[in-house]
Design brief:
The structure is a single chain. The protein is mostly helical. The chain has seven helices and no strands. It starts with a helix and ends with a helix. 19% of the residues are buried.
């Protein structure tokens, strides 16, 4: 479970920083104490409350299922494709149509390079 809390801690800290929020601002928006948030982000809480995680997922605009999974909770009925997409979306946050097009173009480029490397 310790590895799960470290992954969750890093994910939550990155999501908060991406939103440019302080721990105090998150406390004010969610009602979750600054101390609890600090312990979550340092990986000290081994079994975080799903209610608290839900509040954070809404504020940070990230997948609640991804947060639950990172916290070590079972998440039913997630196909690999949906999981992969939601993890990526959670990591990069909201995107514009232009950014999505650029990301797809770059991904196609990376995949074509990998295919060319395999042919050699």
């Amino acid at each position: 479970m310790e590895q799960d809390s470290k992954k969750l801690a890093e994910f939550l800290r990155a999501a908060r920083e991406r939103k440019a929020l302080t721990l105090r601002a998150v406390e004010k928006a969610t009602g979750i104490s600054n101390a609890y948030l600090s312990q979550l982000e340092s990986g000290k809480i081994q079994q975080p409350s799903p209610v608290m995680l839900n509040k954070l997922s809404e504020l940070y605009q990230v997948s609640y299922a991804d947060i639950l999974e990172l916290a070590g909770y079972p998440v039913p009925d997630r196909s690999n494709e949906a999981t992969s997409y939601s993890r990526l979306a959670s990591r990069i946050g909201p995107t514009t149509k232009e950014e999505e097009d650029a990301l797809l173009e770059y991904l196609e480029f990376l995949r074509s390079r990998r295919k060319r490397g395999q042919r050699r």
